[in-house]
Design goal:
- It contains seven helices and seven strands; from the N terminus they run ααβββββαβαααβα.
- The chain is an alpha+beta fold.
- It has a seven-stranded antiparallel sheet.
- Helix 3 packs across helix 7 and helix 4 packs across helix 5.
- The radius of gyration is 16 Å and the shape is globular.
- The chain starts with a helix and ends in a 5-residue tail after the last helix.
- The N terminus and C terminus are likely disordered.
Amino acid sequence: MRLRRLAFLLLMPLWLAACGGPAEPVWSPDEAIRKYAYRHDGPPEVRLYTVVSTRNGSGAHSGLLINAPSGRILFDPAGTFTLPFTPERNDVHYGMTDNALKVYIDYHARETFDVIEQRVMVSADQAERLARLVKEYGAVPKAQCSLSITRILRQVAGFETVPVSYFPVSTSKRFARLSGVTERVITDNDADKNHNVLFQASIAGPSPS
């Protein structure tokens, strides 16, 4: 128990570096949600994103993309990602077009961090339940990105085997055991000071289509 507690304390600063957003509620107006809400024409799907240090393999952040019939949204709990055309309500981002998703990945991938993308097809009912749960969860405190995602997943049929966990890498490994999951690792050789090329361009330019 002492070793586990020590590991927890040592890893906490790494979580705060990425799961470092404030827990204060963020509530974009209805007008912004209506303007940027996006429905993807692909099948209902869930994607788990895990940001992993290339130096020591520790997990820095978790995010969950949900493609439901009502719309495609990103649950980025305690994250610092923000764009003017992906309005946020308590860590739930709307307007997640393919280009916006590329920006999200670019925001995290760099020389010191890889991004693991895990995808699984789900039913429309599963996707809508997940979407409802993330919208109802509320603003997530710092360092609880994986905790909030696993708490939500366990409430949905088909995801009950994913245990509640503070650790993004552990969550990713258990998610990989679900039936039908496909996985890819996204790398970016940009140095820390030069990463976020797409992110910076998107802030300066027009909204991606």
